From TrEMBL, chain A:
Cofactor: Mg(2+)
SUPFAM superfamilies to which the protein is assigned, alphabetical: Anticodon-binding domain of PheRS (SSF54991), Class II aaRS and biotin synthetases (SSF55681), Nucleic acid-binding proteins (SSF50249), PheT/TilS domain (SSF56037), Putative DNA-binding domain (SSF46955)
UniProt protein name: Phenylalanine--tRNA ligase beta subunit
GO molecular function: phenylalanine-tRNA ligase activity
Known EC number: 6.1.1.20
CDD domains named among the record's database cross-references: tRNA_bind_bactPheRS
Residues covered by the TRNA-binding domain: 43-153
Species in which this protein is naturally found: Thalassobacterium sedimentorum
Catalytic activity, reaction form: tRNA(Phe) + L-phenylalanine + ATP = L-phenylalanyl-tRNA(Phe) + AMP + diphosphate + H(+)
Residues making up the signal peptide according to the UniProt record: none
Keyword Cell cycle part of the UniProt annotation: no
Residue ranges of domain B5 in the record: 409-489
Family membership: Belongs to the phenylalanyl-tRNA synthetase beta subunit family. Type 1 subfamily.
UniProtKB/TrEMBL annotation, chain B:
Main enzyme class: ligase
Species this chain originates from: Thalassobacterium sedimentorum
Gene: pheS
Domain Aminoacyl-transfer RNA synthetases class-II family profile: 112-344
Family the UniProt entry places it in: Belongs to the class-II aminoacyl-tRNA synthetase family. Phe-tRNA synthetase alpha subunit type 1 subfamily.
CDD domains (alphabetical): PheRS_alpha_core
Name of this chain's protein: Phenylalanine--tRNA ligase alpha subunit
Enzymatic reactions: tRNA(Phe) + L-phenylalanine + ATP = L-phenylalanyl-tRNA(Phe) + AMP + diphosphate + H(+)
Amino acid sequence: MKISYNWLKNYIDLDPAEHSPEVLAEVLPLLGFDIEEYEKLGPPQLNNVVVGQVLEYIQHPDADRLRCCKVSTGNEGEVHDIVCGAKNFKQGDKVMVALPGAVLPGDFKIKASKLRGQPSAGMMCSAKELQIGQDHDGIMILSADTELGMPLNDLYTDGDTVFDLEITPNRVDVLSHIGVARELAAKFGLSVQYPEVKASIENGSNGTALISGVEVSAPEFCPHYTAICIKGVTIGPSPKWLKDAIEATGQRSINNVVDVTNYVLHETCQPLHAFDAGKIQGGKLVVRMAEAGEEITTLDEVERSLTADMAVIADAERPLVVAGVMGSLAAEVDQDTVDVVLEAAYFSPTSVRATSRKLGLSSDSSYRFERGIDPKGVTYAALRAVDLILEVAGGRVDGNQIEVGAEPPTLSEVQLSPDRVRQFIGFEVSDEDIQNVLESLGLVIAVHNADDGSVRWEVSIPSYRQDLQRDVDLIEEFIRVYGTDKIPESEVVARGISTQDHRIYTVNEAVADYLTGQNFDEAFLYSLRDPEETKFFFGEESFKVLALDNPLQSDQSHLRPSLIPGLLDVLKLNAARATGATRFFERGHVYREVKGQMVELVSVGFVIVADQLSREWRQREVADFYTARTLAGEILEIAGTAASKLTFKPIEQSQLWQPGHSAEAGDFAKMGFQATAGLLNMAILKDRWDIKTPIIAGSILMTPKFFERKAKRGRHLGISNQPASAKDLALIVDESVLAGDVEKDVAKFARKATQGFDCESVRIFDQYQGQGLPEGKKSLAVSMSFRAADRTLKDKEVNRAFEAIQKLISEKTEYQIRK
Amino acid sequence: MQEQLNAIVAEVQKSAPTIQARAEFEAYKATISGPKGALTDVMKGMGKVPKQDKPAMGKLINEAKTAVQAAFDQVVERIEAAELAAKLGPAIDPTLPAPDAARGTLHPIAQVREEMVALFRRIGFSVAEATELETEHYCFDALNIPSDHPARDMQDSYYLPESLKVNNVSKHADEKYLLRTHTSTVQIRTMLQSQPPIRIVAPGRCFRRDTPDATHSANFHQIEGLYVDKNVTLLDLKATLDHFVKTIFGPKAKTRLRPSFFPFTEPSFEMDFFSPDLGKLSNKWLEIMGCGMVDPEVFKAVGIDPEAYTGYAFGMGIERIAMILQGVDDIRYYYQNDVRFLKQFA
């Protein structure tokens, strides 16, 4: 909101030095009113720019658009030849002349020269060229009594500074010059002089000759409505003071009556509306709810269709104003207006806000109404506007102030104790300091001393400060005006013992340590992905469930079900830029569909380019499925699942993973975790990412609940010092049989076959397929290690166990023992 | 016999240095000290030596054995040295490039996040987590942001369809789901789950429906802080945040609390800081976080007695702080993940 320094001076005595615009620019943000920008208006300091008079002019002999002028600047006998392109002056007009040597804004140097062969020693200037105003339609014409030769800066002494303040939504009262003046007065110890209202009008419900009355059929929307009729105004341009003020707030001056309504809005924060009484059909104003589909063309010349939850000010025939938001062309005051009806009302903040949102239309009025204007400020603003209209446009008040409804109730008292203030802020201040600050803001304090020595204050709140409802609100007012710079610096006091970090965070820390140690760089990616991609990789149901209601961009409409596609984007970008990067991971949340519902999951994903990207004097082996499986298993182990509990099953069909070269373990929906590892689908990666190298990847999903598991503490089981005894076995099995299953079977049999000692480990250490074996078969070599806790094992007992194991294999499985 | 011994020793001393390989050595050794070896033969002849000559003869044999063994030891030593040299291969060149990949790096935002979390952990805060998917209640209502507050406009938040059911994010009543717009939701979830004293920081991802540009990103990260206990004061808030700023931005940094407004704190402030050591950003006030004393309405929403407890809360954008610290002028760099960018912060 734009606040003019000159305008503020109407209400407080700002000392040019002590309260200069520069000082205000520092003070206002510290009062809670941040400055988006502030600019100096009015002419800059310019030399050799003086008042001149056009003595005579002739058409330029060689240029249709130019005139050759003789201009005097007051010195007897001195005449300046100036060629000028403007046509809006006549002989004898007083104008601003920049003489040779002047440097106009934009570093425009004025020199004596020739224009199309005619001498020109100077320039007659427009308001814009001198930064006095926006007017650039021709040169400035000064009033005839302006003194010849007067320098520009003597003529225009009233430069202004305009602050564009960012007002927080709780402070509607500061959306006005009086509001800002009140704040500065509190800070600087000044007093506010409110403009005195001269008009004296009786309140009443009777109509006047102009309108028979006001009818409010939407009292919830409009609890309080007033109208004053003014007859016989003369519409015309606003006087300079009014025009300057309106323009300082960034608006366009329209005419004297409309400008007054806008002026009072920016002065008091009360929006007003002026109707041309002559255009009100049926002689009556009606505040009613709109009819669904009712149409109105608002002042911004947009035709709008209203809904039944919006209110309008209407005449007998049509809506004239969208209540609280914007007027229409239908009843606007224009140059032919003679009689005016001035509206001042209080509209319900939530209703105005809803209307403004629905219409996508915000105005200075709606902005204030929706924040809740001063419920008791309606009449003051109306009378202030009447005074100003009579002053600048003439006319006379006709009849009463027509009033329907009443001022909404306001909260008037808040309890506060100075001890509470001190306890809350944590440092010493005197009762008197607190009291002074609150009183400087216009609050009135009644002190109650209790018998026990405690002090209680009853603080009266002005109607324009409806944001002050609780003791903490008053504490805020105190600290705001007292100054946050007076809060002492102090040591950090860390009382008590801190609690445990959430495991999601600590596990993520450990995972990042692990993966960076495995040469992965961490990537950060967007959580929103493309709809088509979601459907392609995760199916129709996910596509439905993961969709946002209101995406901003069509390719970011779905919550990501996996980190892998984003990581592929990263590989693609790095490949395109030939950065040589081959390993990335991300930690983040992903979303999945389970039985038509969404589930939010904690995820870790990683990708590895399984190819030699660069020539090296010594090559390392590239990653494969087992690399990814180990990484995935370790990550889950860090998160708290024993790697031994992971049973990977081959993936047989997938768009993302390469069937036959990838596998999956766990089930997040049933077990709380899931891991997928292996090669990504080569054909699809080539198709969608143009990635032709094999990519090995891993994706781990964990439910937040999974992290609530308590970590298990290990217990010592004893270790044997006796020597181990080993046996190997080769088994011929169908090529579809999984080594893990064979390992499990053998381990099971070994447990059965050993008594009095243990089979410590069973491990597949070789796999063979090809010559010497039947088609469709493979051979798995299994090693077993036996050990007793208390003695060296005898060959005999180990052999007996080994034979028993082989017997069990032959009896219970299809595996053939290779002799 | 003595001549025989001398001849054997002489032969060994002559032949041994020419032996190159272990197998050759074993074969040669057999011809001397093997069961049918020359030396063994001589030793077998000891039986026939007259008794009185035996000590002298024995001495001679021992001398010969020692001499032969010494020659053999030299051979073994030489062969082992050669074998080791063969095993080791040529000497390394310590300046060849490493064939192994270097350690990976944490993302620059994660680095800054960890630095901040570590700082707050040292002064008694612990890390809290919550979901990114939230409901209007936990994101707005419970934080005293009423339904007609501008922050709840459709254009500011990403909403999920009304019909959506979420398995693991609880609703308060029948409100809509959305992606959390700030980490302040963690304040609410934490206060509902635990009793004061509560002292947490909650780093996490947030979402705003903003058109992406140099300072706006569809998702970004915040870190939230909350301290609720008896007698937590404004003085404590300032002390903690001053400590934060001076630790992160250096002891020369100055701070100020600029009064502001947030529905969930009262009083509310923006904290600005001013540093002489920030390159282009030096010597001007930079806004870095919002903070304030927890509003009693928030306490009421989570069932904490505002008469008994007070608290402070703060929230800041991690990207914003990272951009200041790392001199990054466009937030989008962080989400491109060009490894040349990522490695600049290693």
